[in-house]
Design a protein that fits this description.
- The structure holds 2 protein chains of 2 kinds.
- By secondary structure, chain A is mainly beta.
- Chain A has 1 helix and 5 strands; from the N terminus they run ββαβββ.
- In chain B, the strands form 4 sheets. A 7-stranded mixed beta sheet of chain B has the order 1-9-8-13-10-11-12, with helices on both faces. In chain B, strands 3-2-7-4-5-6 form a 6-stranded mixed beta sheet.
- In chain B, a hairpin with a 4-residue loop joins β11 and β12.
- The termini of chain B are far apart.
- The chains are: A mainly beta, B alpha+beta.
- Chains A and B meet through β5 of A and α8, α19, α21 and α22 of B.
C-alpha cells in the first residue's frame, strides 16, 4: 500500500513516478513530487520507482481564481 | 451621438477644487456628489478611519455603513455607490496596482457588495486628489459626471436620449473629452448599459485607452449588480481625466522599496510566466483545461465536472483567437502580467450590432466556463458573442451564465415550458436560445424580464406562480445570499464549499480558492486545517482591496524555488510575494508592516463587512447555507456519473454498506454525511474567526479589532447567544 497525497492507494510493482501521475490523471504541468519527503526532479520521473509503503506527495502549484 | 443631441444636454452643476496632492499614497479627502440635490462637496477622511480601515474597500464599507440604515434598499436614493482607491494604487513600478474597488448595496443580496476592477479610474481619481468618489441620490435624467483632475473641476451634465451601452458610448466619450489622439490615454470612463437597467445583474465597465490598437478597452466590476445601482441613479457615465502620471505620483516615502519589489516581480514574470500559467498569452482562461482535467469545470448547471466537448474551448483555442503580444493588454501602466487579453475584429452574428467587427475584451476563464461548460455550449464563437454583449449591455457574465444554466436545467425538467419561456427552447447546448435570452434580458423583454432577476427571485416565481418543487429548486439553484456562484464545481472540496458559503458578499471566489489545495493536494485534511486556510486566505485576499492591488501577481506567478523553499500552506502563501507587499506598503506609506499586521488590517474590514450583513438582516449562519448541488449529487444522473468515487466514500469513510442499496438510498446516506460535514466546517471556521456559533463576531473579537464603535456594539449585543 502507498500513500498518495495522504490517501491510500494499492501498490503496484514497477510503478514509476511518471506512471503514477498518468494513473492519477495528474496532467497539470506545474507539480512537485516528493517521496518520503525527498524531492524528485522532473527529469527523474520516468526512472524513479515507487516502493511499497512509500509516502508520495504530488503538489500542484495552481493559483486558481 | 452627442452632436445630434445638443438640445438635450444641460449643465446641472459644477465644482472647483484644488488639484491633487498625494502624500505617501493618500489624499485624505473624498469627493461627495449628491445627484438628487446637484450637490458636490469635498469631505475629509478622518484619521481614525484611516488608521483602522487602511483604505480602498475598508473606506468604502465604513462610509457606506455610516450612511445607510438597516432599512435602506439598493434603489433608495440614500444608497451610495463608492469608488475607492488605496494607498498602493497607481504605483507604476509594480504589476497589478491599478484596481478600483467599488462598494454599494446590492440588488441581488440586499446587503453590502464589493467589486474590484482594472482600468485607469482609481489611479486617475487619486492623482486628481481624491481617495474616494462617493455618489448618493438619483438624477432625474441621465447624467455624465466629468472630473478633470488637472484643471480641478467637476461637472455634472444632463444628457438624455443617449444609448447607455458601453461599446459605442465609451469610444464616443473618449473622443469627446480628449483634446487629441495622444490625450486619449488620459481618459478613463465608467459606464454600463441597458442590461444593467433591466436586470439585477448590472456591471460597470471601466476603460483605459489601448494606444497600440487605438481602441478603448474595458474591465468589469462584475458581481452583485453594482451596474444596476449605477443606472438606477441615472448615471450614464463618469469620465475622469488626468495627465501626468509618473513613478513619483504617489509621493512615496521610500521609492527604492517600490523599485526593489517591482524589479524582483517583473524578472519572475518575464522569465517564468510562459512555463507557469501563461497569463501573458491567454490570461485566466488558461484554467479551463485544468478544471476540465480535474473534474472542476462546471457542466450543465454544475451537475458534472467535465465534458467530452470541452476540447473545443480549451486554452489553445483561445491562444489562436486572442491577439498575442499586445502591450496594451496591461489594464494599468507598468503591469508586466498583461493578462487583459482581447479578440480583435470579431464579427457579431446577432443583436443590435450584428455584422459589426468588434473588439471583445476577454474571454476570462469564468466567462468561457460559464457559457461554455455550464450552459453546455462548447462553441468559442458563442462564448465571444455572449461575452461581448454582456459587457456591452452592462451585465455580469458569471451571473448571466449561471442563471441561464439554471433555467436550462429547469427547462429540461419541465419546470419551465415554452409557455413560460415564451417559446425559447432552453436545452443545454442551445446557444441560439441563450443568445436570444441575453438580448431579451438586456431589453427587459419576454422571458428576459424573469431571467434578469437572478436565480433567487426566479426560484420564488417558479414556486409561487408555477407550482415548482421548492426543495428541488433550492438544491439546483446555484446561489447563496442571492448571488450566483462563480464557475467551479465544489462537490469534492469541502473547503471551497465553505469558501463560497461563508464569503461575505456571496459565492465569488475572490475570498477563497482552495479547491486544489483541498481536493487534489489534500494539504488541509482536518476541519481545523480547512478553517485556518479559509480564515487566512480570505483575509489575505481582502488586503488587496484595501490598498488598490490586483490578486493575480500574488500567486498566478511564483518564484522558481517557492515550492522547494517552503512547504504546505506556507508555500501557498508565496512568502516572497508577501514580502514584496510589505515593502510596497512601507515604501508608499512610510509605515513598516509585518505579514501579521497586514492580516490584522484585513480582519478589521472583513469583520465590519460581516457585521454590515448582520445590520442588513443577513449575517447569520442560515445565510451561509449553500445549495446541495455545491456539496454533492442532487440527481441520480449525477450520482451515477461518478458512482465509483461515491461508492468508495460511502464504504470507506461513512462505513455505509452499499450492498443491495438503491441509488436513492446511497445518495441519501451521502447527503446526510456531506451536509453534516459542511455544518462542522462552519463551526470550525466561525471559531477560528472569533465568531459565535451563529456566525456573529463576538464582542471580544470586535474589541480586539478596535471596531467596537457604539453602533457596532449595540448591533452585536442583539445577537449575543
Amino acid at each position: 500500500m502507498n500513500k498518495v497525497n495522504g490517501r491510500d492507494r494499492e501498490w503496484e510493482k514497477d510503478l514509476t513516478v511518471a506512471l503514477l501521475l498518468e494513473r492519477c490523471k495528474y496532467t497539470f504541468p506545474l507539480i512537485m513530487v516528493k517521496i518520503n519527503g525527498k524531492y524528485i526532479p522532473k527529469e527523474k520521473y520516468k526512472d524513479t520507482l515507487i516502493m511499497d509503503n512509500d509516502d508520495v506527495r504530488v503538489i500542484h502549484s495552481i493559483a486558481g481564481g | 451621438m452627442f452632436k445630434e443631441n445638443k438640445e438635450k444636454q444641460k449643465l446641472l452643476t459644477s465644482f472647483e477644487f484644488e488639484p491633487g496632492k498625494v502624500e505617501k499614497g493618500y489624499t485624505d479627502r473624498r469627493l461627495y456628489i449628491n445627484l438628487s440635490e446637484n450637490k458636490i462637496e469635498e469631505k475629509p477622511i478622518d484619521l481614525q478611519v484611516k488608521e483602522i480601515f487602511t483604505g480602498g474597500r475598508g473606506y468604502g464599507i465604513w462610509y457606506l455603513w455610516d450612511t445607510v440604515s438597516s432599512k435602506t434598499k439598493w434603489n433608495d436614493p440614500e444608497n451610495e455607490i463608492i469608488f475607492c482607491t488605496g494607498p498602493i494604487c497607481g504605483v507604476t513600478q509594480y504589476s497589478g496596482t491599478g484596481k478600483t474597488h467599488v462598494v454599494t448595496l446590492s440588488p441581488e443580496t440586499g446587503t453590502v457588495n464589493d467589486n474590484n476592477v482594472g482600468g485607469y479610474l482609481a489611479p486617475f481619481l487619486k492623482f486628481s486628489g481624491w481617495d474616494l468618489l462617493e455618489i448618493q441620490g438619483k438624477a432625474k435624467e441621465d447624467v455624465i459626471i466629468f472630473i478633470d483632475g488637472n484643471k480641478g473641476k467637476v461637472i455634472i451634465e444632463e444628457v438624455s436620449g443617449i444609448n447607455p451601452d458601453t461599446y459605442l458610448l465609451a469610444e464616443k466619450l473618449t473622443e469627446r473629452y480628449a483634446d487629441d489622439e495622444k490625450d486619449k490615454r488620459n481618459i478613463s470612463i465608467v459606464s454600463s448599459g441597458r442590461g444593467a437597467e433591466n436586470t439585477n445583474l448590472g456591471i460597470l465597465n471601466i476603460t483605459w485607452y489601448d494606444v497600440r490598437r487605438r481602441k478603448v478597452r474595458i474591465k468589469q466590476a462584475g458581481r452583485g449588480g453594482t451596474g444596476s445601482v449605477f443606472r438606477d441613479k441615472k448615471i450614464l457615465a463618469i469620465v475622469t481625466k488626468y495627465a501626468g502620471v509618473n513613478a513619483g505620483s504617489n509621493n512615496a516615502a521610500y521609492p527604492e522599496l517600490l523599485k526593489k519589489a517591482g524589479q524582483r516581480l517583473t524578472k519572475e514574470i518575464l522569465k517564468l510566466d510562459h512555463i507557469q500559467n501563461g497569463m501573458r498569452e491567454t490570461g485566466t482562461v488558461n484554467l479551463l483545461d485544468h478544471m476540465q482535467n480535474y473534474n472542476c469545470l462546471p457542466v450543465h448547471n454544475y451537475k458534472f465536472g467535465s465534458h467530452p466537448d470541452a476540447f473545443k474551448i480549451e486554452n489553445k483555442v483561445w491562444h489562436q483567437r486572442i491577439t498575442q503580444n499586445q502591450a496594451g493588454d496591461s489594464c494599468w501602466m507598468g503591469c508586466a502580467m498583461r493578462c487583459a487579453h482581447a479578440v480583435d475584429a470579431f464579427e457579431l452574428s446577432t443583436g443590435p450590432l450584428k455584422g459589426e467587427k468588434v473588439l471583445v475584451d476577454g474571454p476570462e476563464y469564468e466567462t468561457a466556463a460559464g457559457f461554455g461548460g455550464n450552459c453546455g455550449c462548447f462553441d468559442p464563437n458563442f462564448i465571444l458573442e455572449a461575452n461581448f454583449y454582456c459587457d456591452n449591455y452592462g451585465m455580469d457574465t458569471i451571473g448571466v451564465s449561471t442563471t441561464i444554466a439554471f433555467l436550462m436545467e429547469c427547462y429540461e425538467n419541465n419546470i419551465i415550458n415554452k409557455d413560460i419561456s415564451e417559446d425559447l427552447e432552453l436545452n443545454f447546448g442551445n446557444s441560439k436560445a441563450a443568445l436570444e435570452l441575453i438580448h431579451q434580458m438586456a431589453e427587459g423583454k419576454g422571458f428576459g424580464k424573469i431571467a434578469g432577476l437572478g436565480i433567487r427571485q426566479i426560484k420564488k416565481i417558479l414556486v409561487e406562480k408555477y407550482g415548482a418543487d421548492a426543495e428541488f429548486l433550492q438544491d439546483i439553484g446555484m446561489e447563496c445570499k442571492g448571488m450566483e456562484f462563480s464557475e467551479y464545481v465544489t462537490k469534492e472540496s469541502l473547503a471551497q464549499q465553505g469558501g463560497y458559503g461563508m464569503a461575505n458578499k456571496g459565492p465569488q471566489h475572490d475570498e477563497n480558492w482552495l479547491i486544489f489545495m483541498d481536493q487534489v493536494n489534500n494539504q488541509i485534511p482536518t476541519f481545523e486545517d480547512k478553517a485556518s486556510a479559509i480564515r487566512y486566505f480570505s483575509l489575505f485576499r481582502t488586503w488587496f482591496s484595501l490598498v488598490g492591488l490586483c490578486k493575480l501577481p500574488w500567486n498566478d506567478i511564483e518564484p522558481e524555488d517557492n515550492k522547494r523553499k517552503y512547504h504546505g500552506l506556507q508555500a501557498a502563501k508565496v512568502p516572497e510575494h508577501v514580502e514584496n507587499y510589505c515593502w510596497l506598503f512601507e515604501g508608499v506609506t512610510g509605515k513598516s508592516i509585518t505579514p501579521e499586521e497586514l492580516i490584522l488590517q484585513s480582519e478589521r474590514v472583513h469583520n465590519l463587512q460581516r457585521l454590515f450583513n448582520l445590520k442588513m438582516g443577513f449575517g447569520t449562519r442560515e445565510h451561509d447555507t449553500v445549495p446541495y448541488r455545491a456539496v454533492g449529487p442532487v440527481t441520480a444522473e449525477e450520482y451515477e456519473s461518478r458512482s465509483e468515487l461515491y461508492a468508495q466514500q460511502l464504504q470507506e469513510i461513512i462505513k455505509f454498506d452499499i450492498k443491495g442499496k438503491t441509488t436513492e438510498e446511497k445518495m441519501k446516506a451521502l447527503r446526510d454525511y456531506r451536509e453534516e460535514q459542511y455544518q462542522k466546517l462552519c463551526d470550525a471556521v466561525y471559531k477560528r474567526r472569533g465568531w459565535d456559533s451563529n456566525g456573529v463576531p463576538t464582542l471580544e473579537n470586535i474589541k480586539k479589532l478596535k471596531i467596537d464603535f457604539p453602533e457596532v456594539v449595540e448591533l452585536v449585543k442583539k445577537y449575543q447567544l
